[in-house]
Amino acid sequence: MATIPGPATTLDGLTAEQIEAAPGPANAISGLLTVRSVGWSNPSDKQGTDWYAKCQPGEKAIAGGWDEIQGNARFTYNRPTPDDNAWWVHTFTAENTAPASGSIWVVCSK
User: Fold this and answer.
1) What's the whole-model pTM score?
2) CB–CB of 40/103 below 8 Å?
3) Model confidence over 4-51: pLDDT tens digits?
4) Are 93 and 42 spatial neighbours (Cβ–Cβ below 8 Å)?
5) What is d(CA 59, CA 39) in angstroms, rounded to the nearest whole number?
6) Of all helices (H) and strands (E), which one includes residue 108?
7) How far apart are CA 102 and CA 88, in angstroms?
8) CA–CA dist 38, 52 (Å, integer)
9) Residue 34's beta-bridge partner residues?
10) Closest CA to 55 of 2, 3, 4, 106
């Protein structure tokens, strides 16, 4: 009669406790993504301005965005730069009532 093996107590030489303590997929990407931001501010004269939230050397812009905390501005660009090293936003103040300002951010990948 053949013997049926019992449950495994190791995997690739690691015990269950060692496997449980090992970093999982969420920890595997830790440190690979960084969010960087820069403030922007337009005067109230409808002047258009390009703004850039830049990645560090060796990083690539993979996402980004903007917010507006004051004023009334319009955004005509909201995209990565052609070389993918920054997030590019073009703003202009929509009304001559007050300046507009906010933040631009970029998600950078190593």
Assistant:
1) 0.68
2) yes
3) 666 666 667 777 777 777 666 555 566 789 999 999 988 766 678 899
4) yes
5) 20
6) strand 100-109
7) 14
8) 7
9) 108
10) 106
The predicted structure's pLDDT at residue 77: 84
Q: Which residues contact 106 (CB under 8 A, 6 or more apart)?
A: 35, 36, 37, 53, 54, 55, 61, 63, 64, 80, 86, 87
Alpha-carbon distance 105 to 59, whole Å? Answer: 14
Per-residue model confidence (pLDDT) at position 25: 58
CA pair distance 84, 67, nearest whole angstrom: 21
- The conformational region for residue 68 under phi > 0 = left, psi -120 to 50 = alpha, else beta, is beta
Distance CA 24, CA 28 (A): 6
Q: Are 80 and 64 in contact (CB under 8 A)?
A: yes
**C-alpha angle 17-22-28 in degrees, rounded to nearest 5:** 165
For the segment 41-90, what is each residue's pLDDT rounded down to a tens digit?
A: 887 666 788 999 999 999 999 999 999 888 888 888 899 999 999 999 99
